[in-house]
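Fold this sequence, please.
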Amino acid sequence: MERPTDLDTYEKWLKEELRCKIDAKVKRRYETVSLLVRSEFEQTDFWKCLKHELEESEAAYRLKTNGYSLLMTKPGELDLDIKGFDSFFLKTGRWNAFENKNWPSAPDGGWVTPENWFSKINDIVRTMVVVKYLDGVEILVERLQQLCNIPVLTTNVDWEAREEGYYAAHLYVEREYSIPTLDFNSEKIPIKVEIQVTTQLQEAINRLTHKYYEERRRKVKSSDSKWQWDYESDEFIPNYLGHILHYVEGMIMEVRNREVKK
């Protein structure tokens, strides 16, 4: 079968090639598991201490920078969001087919199916912390990693710097959860919760371009397509705007640090 080119052909490919039917049962299981993960994660010592840690980080940053604020996100407004099934399913399509460089073989790490996708997709439950300045991303990530120093938790950080101008740090907090299987049993598997740390400028451009990127990700990328050379393409302006804003943030840091040193 040819590589799927959109979600409809991808769902058909899943059913015919991997024997995975995406029906109401599969969707209900996703909703049940994602709600369970959010509920249990909210009871962890890490989450209970997170808001206090943000307040402590804000105070320490102000002291270090002679009064500059660290956070745009108010600690009391921090919530855990659940990735909707449609967005989640699209991500499996990108992994298995649309962006699979090994096609028609399995992607690195193997096929993502309803049997294993909770341990492979790392942001079914997530939150975002927005900082004012570029240096705040690394400072806050380091402090949150220290907060994660709990035996039942493991963490890793992905420093995102994508070709399309996306910049953010993704901190993944992993622990085991007992979840229902498709055959009504239960199993213990490791699942990650994502804490995204980004700057106010990056968060603003992401909001403006999110709908566009979601639509673009629904289709296979052409290996011959180079958006950098097509100034009339949908990608050209938003992608370069992301890079420009990242550069501007670096310049803001340079000016601010000169002021602090005076």
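The longest strand covers residues 167-180. Strands lie at 81-82, 125-131, 154-161, 167-180, 186-199.
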